Structure prediction request, 445 residues.
Amino acid sequence: MTDVSRLHVPAVPARPGERPDFSYVGLSPAGAVDRPPLDVPVAQTVALAESLVRVLDDDGRALGPWAPQLSADRLRDGLRLMLTTRLLDERMQRMQRQGRISFYVRSFGEEAVSVAAAMALDPQDMLFPSYRNQGLHVVRGMPLVDMMCQMLSNTRDMCRGRQLPVLYHSARLRLFSISGNLATQYPQAVGWAMASAIRGESPIAAAWLGEGSTAEADFHHALLFAKVYRAPVVLNVVNNQWAISTFQGFAGGEQRSFAARGPAVGIAGLRVDGNDFLAVYAATAWAAERARCGFGATLIEHVTYRAGAHSTSDDPSRYRPRDEYEHWPLGDPVDRLQRHLVALGEWDEARHATLLQQIEAKITADWKEALRHGALSEGPKLDPALMFDDVFETLPEHLRQQRDELAAELATRRDERAAAAAASDAAAAAAAPPTAAAPVGQDGS
Ligand SMILES: Cc1ncc(C[n+]2csc(CCOP(=O)(O)OP(=O)(O)O)c2C)c(N)n1
Ligand SMILES: [Mg+2]
Prediction:
């Protein structure tokens, strides 16, 4: 008999030292899920939201109705962009450990979620990323130097030192500024999409958040507005199984998928293998086309795994088995696309090794260039007075006072430094041995 007075607490599948257990992840074989027409009634997407759209099988073959028709060049682009994202990620993680940048968030293991989606969308579409979507910026062509300068908070930082590392933006590339406050990008994306529809324009919006962030009220408000106004938006939930140390079951992932929340409120839902480049590409293209045709929003759940720590401030060995990623049933997104290209006869080990070398060399050169604009402990520094700019058209009196006080303080410090430098120069000159022009003894001493 069930004890109704007992509170249900979702069980974590495995803690440190225990055997990883992913039996809770519902899988479908590659190619098994139907691809409905774009005008499919929302209620008929319930099954799609509970199954798993997969294209690539374990042998690297592309199967079934979702397999997108992509040229070998396009597939190689996808591989190059995912590898660029991954190697940048590895380098920045190391730079944080060396104390060169203050903080970093990796997207390791989740590269396909961002890279394939950005490639499937139109360059005019407006993207509202989370902090774990580096691949979106890489695909849109944000210079790696710009991303690095943002992480260094240096003189070329687009955020002028006002944001945590990884919260980049680019109005030109249509990449909305990333907020550290979870889920704010969802209502912003829906509002942007509504505005695009009101103006009769074709660009759509796309937003990403983690499964843990679906607990935020912003997620629910956004879904309601998107449903009511059939906003042209693609809403992505990246289910990487963890929200810092909190397992996806606590975010509501038990029994029903996150994608099922779409049809629950009247939005099409799709659950997709997030480590399958081709499946993410096809699902995004389908949802984008639906939105552009006026059939409304789609909620896509990308099933993936956060292969690294939450951030450089986290130690996952405290709360999950160390070898969990090795047991993840959906494999590694980069390996899987590579295997597909090899199976097609369009890639080999030698080309792969050359590509890795080229990307590493570019990252090294870009990092050197970024450092010229300043680092945490050396090089040019941002002017602290910048903190008063860009918020108010006319600076309020109390802030004007603070700015003046800061200017006076900085001037005093500059004078003190100059005086100290002059004093030390004079002391050095006094202690210096006589020059060749005045050898010892020649002046009578
Ligand atoms: C409104 C808000 N609440 C809490 C936090 C602290 N916080 C930062 S990231 C995070 C976990 C988010 O997990 P998830 O949404 O699954 O995204 P993931 O990090 O896995 O990509 C939390 C709780 C925050 N930044 N903002
Ligand atoms: Mg998560």
